[in-house]
Amino acid sequence: MTASVGTRYETVIGIEVHAQLRTESKMFCACATAPTDGGADEPNTRVCPICMGLPGTLPVINRRAVELVMLTGLALNCHVETDAVRFERKNYFYPDLPKGYQISQYALPLTSNGRLLVTVPTEGDVTIGITRAHLEEDTARMQHAGRGYSVVDFNRAGVPLMEIVTEPDIRSPAQARAYGETLRELLRAIGASNADMEAGSMRIEGNVSLRPTGATTFGTKVEIKNMNSFRSLERALEYEVARHAEALDRGDVLVQETRGWDEERGNTIIQRSKEEANDYRYFPEPDLPPLRPSEAWVAELRSMLPELPAQRRARYVDALGLSPYDAGVLTADAALAAYFDSVVDHGVAPKTAANWVSGELSRLLNQHAADGLRADRVGLRPDGLAELIGEVDAGRVSNSNAKMVLADVFATGESPRAVIERDGLGQVSDAGAIDVEITGVLAEYSSQVEEYRSGKEQVFGFLVGQVMKRTAGRADARLVNAALRRRLGAE
Question: Which of 28, 143, 320, 449 is the most buried (most CB within 10 A)?
Fold first, then answer.
């Protein structure tokens, strides 16, 4: 199926994102959100009577989780409620919910009525309304083991979870993907969540419907789940848009339902009929009093907001002279952008720093992506990379050898200058030594020399390569080029 609906229909999409918050303990108890020793996460070991919902237990609100939701709301230009925020019980029965209900927020959320400016590669800037960003607790993790049974790991039950819901302002799958990517950048920049879809710390659901062009009422909505990447989100929405359009063209009646995305088959499959809010029988949580954040607390959090990704991109383009593409690559990862800023602070030209950080450094980071390595945990600190770039700029090491040095010191943090001296990787800039190697190459490859003199300019690159090979890549390529041209012309 394709996502083309022509001019017959307008696509209407809303997005719900669940992001696990970066706290040390769970939402309503003292259980750790991750293994404290950094080892394997053994199932059902980070649990207690509170997060297991045993009778006689009482929840206590995690202050840091409240702060992170308020911080997110401020970054999304939301109103932060200071009169009364109410926790409510969302009732449904499923094996991943030990209490038989989830403590969430519904009628009086912590933050609401915000907006996020999103840049869509093919469509330009779009402003998407944020209905709410509220606080709740995560469910346990179900694993379907096959053979007709499933197992449940309750370690995740009670982990602080933030739900961010958009207005139905999104008009294409491409806008939905751009929104998800932009929101992930923001959550990482403010430190609210790791927002890692593959690890499950960020989960995204799309609600999609079609209506005749010009209509003001919404069509029948379908919710799509089980998307583990932004590419999957875009593909799933494209499939549903096409499915809806074909059904409407046939005169079929669409049903409100929840569907899952099958990545391998590239289609959606029905899971269940879609619940409404009244199906959950929300009512105020009797064991938690209303929460009333003070104006002073909100002001303090507002002052703690860091430079947001959109502001950073604008600074990189306007003040540092980077291209929008380079600025986008760097700000897509808050840790990488901070690393770049520090390299520039150590005196490296912005464009040069951007080339190294988004190029060779990022390549090495990608090799360790499975280990969760980020730029803020690399052994080589920004001053070390600045030192290496300085050696290249001064002509004391070739660009190719500098990349070898970077690979060596990436994890250890050793001084690049020390490695260059120890391993003899310094660049040869002695004109006499270079001329000796050129003489040897001209004698060994006399036939190629004649080809060059007969007009085959491409042979020159071969001869340069042979000189570099004789010096183990250490010769100053600029000096080699100039000296070789001079020798070929003179002889």
Answer: 28
Residues of the chain with CATH 1.10.10.410: 431-490
Name residues whose C-beta falls within 8 Å of residue 373's C-beta, 6 or more positions apart in sequence. Answer: 365
Tell me the CB-side half-sphere exposure of residue 138, using CA atoms within 13 A: 26
Contact of 179 with 128, CB cutoff 8 Å:
yes
For residue 2 the two structure tokens come to: 């394709």
Contacts of 253 (CB under 8 A, 6+ apart): 220
Asked if residues 140 and 156 have their Cβ atoms less than 8 Å apart, the reply is: yes
**What span, in angstroms and rounded, lies between the C-alpha atoms of 188 and 334?**
6
Radius of gyration of the chain, Cα coordinates, nearest whole angstrom: 29
Closest CA to 336 of 316, 318, 402: 316
Indicate the class that CATH gives domain 431-490. mainly alpha
Tell me the two tokens of residue 363.
């390549």
* Among 77, 79, 87, CA closest to 183: 77
Q: pTM for this structure? A: 0.83
- Backbone φ and ψ for 179, nearest 5 degrees, come out as -60, -50
pLDDT at residue 272, as a whole number: 78
**pLDDT tens-digit series, residues 53-92:** 999 999 999 999 999 999 999 999 999 999 999 999 999 8
Q: Which residues contact 349 (CB under 8 A, 6 or more apart)?
A: none
Tell me the one-letter amino acid at 343: V
C-alpha–C-alpha distance, residues 162 and 204, integer Å: 12
Q: Which residues contact 406 (CB under 8 A, 6 or more apart)?
A: 356, 360, 361, 364, 380, 385, 388, 416
| E strand map for 87-245 | 88-91, 101-104, 111-120, 124-137, 141-146, 149-153, 160-166, 202-212, 222-227
Smallest CA-to-CA distance from 234 within 176, 167, 164 is with 176
CA–CA distance, 261 with 240 (Å, rounded to integer): 10
Q: What is the mean pLDDT of the chain?
A: 90
